[in-house]
Amino acid sequence: MRSRLLDMGQVGPVRAYSVPHAVTAGLGPESEPVLILANPASSVVSLDQTADVATEIDLASCTERRIPVIRRWGGLGANLVGPSHLLLAFGFSRSRARELGLPEDAEDLVKRYCQAISSAVRGLGGRADSIPSGGVGIDGREVAHIDLLTFDDGFCCLAGLAVETSDDLHDSVLRRPLSEPSTALRREIDPSPDANTVAEAAVGALEKQFGLELVPSMPQPHELEAIYEWDLRLRLEEGAGIEEQTPAGVAQ
Questions:
Q1: CA atoms within 13 A on the CB side of 224
Q2: Model pLDDT for residues 49-76, shown as the tens digit of each residue
């Protein structure tokens, strides 16, 4: 099936999340599926919709380190990603899922997304396996976390794939211990793949898994407006509470 490909390259840490939120929230019954790639230029902490800020993160440490904190429209508690990660988001209209042969069930969608990312890791030379958190691991160490964003008619699976090793900020900014130890592709695979090779492998695996015919695209004017809105709506301002107003198109 025809699907748009938005390769955003390296973008600001909040923008890396606002693009998949904005584009997927705007999908409707006539919309084509979309695959979005983004690489955060610096670290960002994201919380799910029910996570308690004080329980999950050290907000003072985030502020001191100038790490933005956002609340995404998904689950899985708190995540920390940065320049060492590749974010891959696949979004589509749920009202078109059956017509397009795409999963209508959230559990099935996440399962197939994990299978695609696992296939990409194996193609690169890693021993991919499933892990209890629902992500993808290498010998039990998480290399990708998988999240699901749900909107009025938009379904979006979001993977944070660790490409490079990085300084571990986890203990400095997140209060809860990792459910599984983490690793990165370049640490586990010999010869270690560069970021472009990883992106190509992941895109190819997702193309095969969902039967996509990818067409390079850019955000449309209405999507750019929505992206700017989500830049503001996602972010937890320093010393402030989480923004409670819900943007249009978000499922309640």
A1: 5
A2: 888 888 899 999 999 999 999 999 887 7
